From TrEMBL:
This is Cytochrome P450. It comes from the Bacteria. It comes from Amycolatopsis dongchuanensis. InterPro entries: Cyt_P450, Cyt_P450_B, Cyt_P450_CS, Cyt_P450_sf. Residues 1-29, 72-94 are annotated as: Disordered.
Length: 395
C-alpha cells in the first residue's frame, strides 16, 4: 500500500540520543501514518505531540494485551490476556480498581522515606565505585544496582535475599537469554515474589506489598502486581541513569551548568527525560471506530504512539533536538499520558534527582573511557539506553 511504513528503529551512533531520523520526517509529512506490523496487521503510527496525547487520553483506546499488535520484534504466537493484577495491561474498570489501591500505597510518606534510603544507597554504590577504581562500567557499578535496591525497599525484600532477587530480575532483561532461559527467569521471579507475598501475609512490614495484603487482593493478583512493578521500574530507571550520564558527558556545557547550579536539578532531570524518552513508544487498540487527525481508525486497529517523536515535536518544544537543561518541559510524555501514566514517576524522579548530581559532583573529572561511537546502544531492546557505559576519572 502506498504511504505505508514499517516502524523506524535505526539509530545512529553519531547521534546516539536522537530517535530514528525517519520519525521526524513522518511527523512533518503525515503525523498519523499507516503502519505495517511484523505479524501483517495494518495499523497506525502517531508521531506528533498532539496526536500522541490525544490517543493516550481517549478511553475508546484499549491497552489490553490480547488485542494489540506490536510494531517491532517477532510476531507473538498467540496474544493472550495478561494475568489478573497486571494492571498496566488492563482497561477500566479493572485498571481503576488496581490503580486506586496502588496509588494509596505510593504515599508521600513512603516516597519521602524512600528518598532517604535512595541517598544512603547511592552513597554506598558511589563508595564502591571509588574503591573499584577508574575505569568502570557505570551500568554495572551504579545504574543497575541502585534501582534494584530501591525496588527491594519498596517491595520489602529482606536484605539477605537481595542478591538472589537482583540476579533473577536482571536475567529477565538479558539480551542473550534464549526463550528457555527467559521462561526460567520468569518462573524464578514469580516464585520469588510469591514467597514474598506469603511472608508478608504472615508477618506484614512497612512496605508496599505488606500494605496491599490488607486489601482484598488474591495472592495471584499480588504476585502479578509485584511482577508488574519490577518489569516497569527496574530497567527503565537503570537506563535513564546510564543514558542520562552519557548525555551529560556528551554535553559538557550543560553538565557545567548543572554543576554550577545554573539550572535546577528538577528542571535538568525533566529535560533529560524529555530529550531521551527511553520508552520510545507504547501501543493502544481502538475499541470502536475513532476519528483521529482527519483519519478513521477502525475498531480493532492498533495505533503505535511514538513518545520519542512526540517529545521532539518542534511544534511543542522549540529546537527539540538540543539538550537544554534550563528549558520549560511541561507536557513531555516520557512517562506517558492519561490513565496509564507512569505510576512510579515520582519515585523515578527522586532516584534521578539524587543519583545523577551525586555522581557528577563526586567525580568532577568523570569522562567516557571509550570514544562516544563505541558505546554499545540498546537499539535492539524495547527500552532504549546503553548496554555498557565505560567511564574514567582522575584520582
Ligand atoms: C525513568 C524511569 C521511568 C520511565 C521513563 C517510565 C515510563 C513509563 C511510561 C512511558 C509508562 C506508560 C506506558 C503506557 O502508557 O503504555 C509507564 C507506566 C508505568 N510505570 Fe513507569 N517509568 C519509569 C519508572 C518507573 C518506576 C520506578 C516504576 C515503579 C516503581 C514504574 C511503574 C510503572 C507502572 C506500574 C506503569 C503502568 C501504569 C498503569 O498502567 O496504570 N515506572 N512508565
Amino acid at each position: 500500500m502506498a504511504d505505508t511504513t514499517t516502524m523506524p528503529t535505526g539509530r545512529s551512533s553519531a547521534r546516539p540520543f536522537d530517535p530514528p531520523a525517519e520519525l521526524s520526517k513522518l511527523r512533518e509529512k503525515r503525523p498519523l501514518s499507516r503502519l505495517e506490523y511484523p505479524d501483517g496487521h495494518l495499523g497506525w503510527l502517531a508521531t506528533s505531540h498532539a496526536l500522541v496525547r490525544e490517543v493516550l487520553a481517549d478511553r475508546r483506546f484499549s491497552v489490553r494485551a490480547e488485542l494489540r499488535h506490536l510494531p517491532v520484534g517477532a510476531p507473538a504466537q498467540q496474544p493472550r490476556p495478561a494475568p489478573p493484577g497486571t494492571f498496566s495491561a488492563a482497561d477500566p474498570p479493572e485498571h481503576t480498581r488496581y490503580r486506586r489501591l496502588l496509588t494509596g500505597q505510593f504515599t508521600v510518606r513512603r516516597m519521602r522515606q524512600l528518598a532517604d534510603h535512595i541517598k544512603a544507597i547511592t552513597d554506598e554504590y558511589l563508595d564502591a565505585m571509588e574503591r573499584h577504581g577508574s575505569p568502570a562500567d557505570l551500568v554495572e557499578v551504579l545504574a543497575k544496582p541502585v534501582p534494584a535496591q530501591v525496588i527491594c525497599e519498596l517491595l520489602g525484600v529482606p536484605f539477605a535475599e537481595r542478591d538472589q532477587f537482583q540476579d533473577h530480575a536482571y536475567a529477565l532483561f538479558r539480551l542473550d537469554s534464549g526463550p528457555e532461559e527467559l521462561g526460567a527467569a520468569y518462573t524464578a521471579v514469580h516464585e520469588f515474589v510469591r514467597g514474598l507475598v506469603t511472608a508478608k501475609r504472615s508477618a506484614p512490614g512497612d512496605d508496599l506489598l505488606s500494605g496491599l495484603t490488607a486489601s482484598d487482593l488474591t495472592d495471584e493478583e499480588l504476585v502479578n502486581i509485584g511482577f508488574t512493578l519490577l518489569g516497569a521500574g527496574l530497567d527503565t530507571t537503570a537506563n535513564m541513569l546510564a543514558l542520562g550520564t552519557f548525555a551529560l558527558l556528551a554535553h559538557p556545557d550543560q553538565l557545567a551548568a548543572l554543576r554550577a547550579g545554573e539550572s535546577t536539578v528538577d528542571q535538568a532531570i525533566e529535560e533529560l527525560l524529555r530529550y531521551l524518552s527511553i520508552v520510545p513508544f507504547t501501543v493502544r487498540v481502538a475499541l470502536e471506530d475513532v476519528e483521529l487527525g482527519g483519519a478513521l481508525i477502525k475498531a480493532g486497529e492498533t495505533v503505535t504512539v511514538s513518545l520519542a517523536a512526540a517529545d521532539r515535536d518542534p511544534g511543542k518544544f522549540p529546537h527539540p533536538d538540543a539538550l537544554d537543561l534550563g528549558r520549560p518541559t511541561a507536557g513531555h510524555v516520557a512517562f506517558g499520558h492519561g490513565i496509564h501514566q507512569c505510576l512510579g514517576q515520582q519515585l523515578a524522579r527522586v532516584e534521578l534527582q539524587v543519583v545523577l548530581p551525586a555522581l557528577v559532583n563526586r567525580f568532577p573529572s568523570l569522562r567516557l573511557a571509550v570514544p562516544s561511537e563505541d558505546v554499545p546502544l540498546r537499539t535492539d531492546m524495547l527500552i532504549y539506553g546503553v548496554h555498557h557505559l565505560p567511564v574514567a576519572w582522575d584520582r
